[in-house]
Design a protein that fits this description.
TIM Barrel; alpha/beta; globular; 230 residues
């Protein structure tokens, strides 16, 4: 597999190395977690034509050595399809990220976490991302003692969530302010060769995940590329 971090000009950070788990896939530490994830992740927003299509997409991704699958409660039947597919076949080192919208109160987030666990058919979610931390109001909800993160922290303490991060389309100022809360182990945002607006100041602050805009791979799997720092 060609090293896309070099071919696209992303020379910063440690280069990924081949792994004995797959002859061509490469893996990196995911954000500030200790998870070793493939440099490609499978995004599941666009496999919703049917449960069978989802199963085929996931199976092909696993064959390619992808070990990180991302979904969201807002992606229609995505969580349910993913849960059904992985009940049939889930290798031990495959990690799931789901995303939940920020909420002003803890109880709504608590219910949303339990609903995602049920849809995915798992006892614990590897990575939970606050989905679309885009405004100062969202950030206020995150920082409130009785806001959504109270429920997230309770879920972490109960073993229902292992790592927490956020996704965002926000201006850089909001992204940096969210990072400064020190509540997150990874960030998912638009970043690619043509869109590097958020790199200069953010990269000096954190060693998290940077997600490129998705594009169509020349395979059956509808994947999104993820470039992982350090």
């Amino acid at each position: 597999m060609r090293d896309l971090t070099s071919s696209l000009g992303w020379g910063f950070g440690k280069q990924p190395t081949p792994d004995t788990r797959h002859p061509t896939m490469r893996y990196r530490r995911f954000g500030q977690t200790n998870l070793s994830l493939s440099v490609f992740s499978l995004g599941t927003m666009r496999y919703l034509a049917s449960a069978d299509n989802a199963k085929q997409t996931i199976a092909h991704a696993l064959e390619l050595g992808i070990n990180h699958i991302e979904t969201a409660s807002g992606y229609g039947n995505s969580e349910q399809f993913l849960g059904e597919a992985l009940r049939l076949r889930r290798p031990p080192a495959v990690y799931l990220t789901t995303k939940l919208l920020p909420t002003a109160d803890a109880e709504t987030m608590r219910q949303n976490i339990d609903r995602s666990l049920a849809r995915l058919g798992v006892e614990a979610i590897d990575c939970l991302a606050i989905h679309g931390l885009n405004t100062w109001e969202h950030l206020d909800w995150v920082k409130r003692p009785d806001g959504c993160m109270a429920a997230v922290q309770q879920a972490i303490a109960a073993g229902k969530i292992h790592h927490v991060g956020f996704s965002t389309h926000a201006p850089l100022e909001i992204i940096l302010a969210a990072i400064e809360t020190r509540q997150f182990a990874f960030v998912n945002l638009h970043y690619n060769y043509f869109f590097q607006r958020n790199r200069a100041r953010s990269i000096d602050r954190i060693s998290l995940i940077w997600a490129c805009s998705s594009f169509r791979l020349p395979t059956k799997a509808d994947c999104s590329i993820r470039h992982l720092l350090r």
